[in-house]
C-alpha cells in the first residue's frame, strides 16, 4: 500500500502562457502564484528556448535603435 496521495496530472502550459511568464520574468514582475504554476506545470526546455529567443530579439532591437540614432545624429 502506498501512502502517497494520488495527484491528477496537470496540463502543460500553453505557448502563450510560457511567453507571458518569460516576459514577466524579464521585467521582474512575476507573481508568486504564476511562479508556482510555472514550476509545477511548465517545461524547462520551453522556458529556455523562449528566453533565448526573446533575449535575441531584445539585443537585435537595441542594435537597430542605436544604428538608427547614429544615422540620424551623425550625417554621413
TrEMBL record:
Keywords noted in UniProt: Membrane, Transmembrane, Transmembrane helix
Q: Does the keyword Transmembrane helix apply?
A: yes
Q: Which InterPro entries match?
A: DUF2970
Identify the domain of life. Bacteria
Q: Which residues cross the membrane?
A: 44-70
Output this protein's name: DUF2970 domain-containing protein
Organism of provenance: Hydrocarboniphaga daqingensis
